[in-house]
Amino acid sequence: MEDNEIVALYWERNETAIAETEKKYGRYCYVIAYNVLYCHEDAEECVNDTYLRAWETIPPQRPNALNAYLGKITRNMALNRYEYIHADKRDPRVTEIYDESAFALADRNTDPLDEIALKDAVNSFLAALPAEHRTVFIRRYWYMSEVAAIAKDYRIPEGTVKSILSRTRKKFQKHLEKEGIHL
């Protein structure tokens, strides 16, 4: 079933929408949640919460890219669950990613126009990257994949992945500064 058909089911308040969402995007959402939580049960719970949140927010939202919409919901659910579970503990797997990406995770109390400017700056930066660098960067900081997993999937040494990430982070910070965005 096509995404626009699934979204139409949500708008009609047809419960088939959830089943179709699970069929098409269940594994995708699970991987996102699992990469943050490293726990099968917690990841499944986040995915189920994603379906509920989608049901609650479509309508009024009408996402153009259902996979990105669901991915964002899942990632936010997983990060919130991670923070709740590890409030007094520090898990080095996720903490490392947080430390690396502090430039993008800063607590921001900004108006919506600043958020739009940030989104535009991120999109223009990613569009200008070579495909391999873009996918490595997104895998690490959006999907929270481990360096070893990225290296294995792209058949490149871990050191190369770390180098790509380091250089891309520096370029990203310069790009944001050039755009007048200070995190």
Give average pLDDT, whole number.
87
| Helical content class | over 70%
The name of the CATH architecture of the largest domain is Orthogonal Bundle
Distance between the termini: 40 Å
Beta strand %: under 5%
Strands, count: 0
**CATH class wording of the largest domain:** Mainly Alpha
- The number of helical elements comes to 10
Write down the secondary-structure element order: HHHHHHHHHH
Rg, alpha carbons: 17 Å
Question: Which fold name corresponds to the CATH topology of the largest domain?
Answer: Arc Repressor Mutant, subunit A
> Could you say how many structural domains there are in total?
2
Account of the protein in words:
76% of the residues lie in helices and 0% in strands. It has 183 residues and is mostly helical. The chain has 2 domains: 1-88, RNA polymerase sigma factor, region 2, helix turn helix motif (Rna Polymerase Sigma Factor, Chain: A); 90-183, Orthogonal Bundle (Arc Repressor Mutant, subunit A). The longest helix has 22 residues, at 16-37. The protein is globular and about 45 Å long. Mean pLDDT is 87; it is low at 105-109.
List its traits.
mainly alpha; 0% strand; 76% helix; globular; Arc Repressor Mutant, subunit A; Rna Polymerase Sigma Factor, Chain: A; 183 residues; single chain
Question: What does the secondary structure layout of this molecule look like, with pairings?
Answer:
Blueprint: H1 3-11, H2 16-37, H3 40-57, H4 66-85, H5 92-100, H6 102-105, H7 112-128, H8 131-141, H9 147-154, H10 158-178
Helix pairs in contact: 1-2, 2-3, 2-4, 3-4, 8-10, 9-10
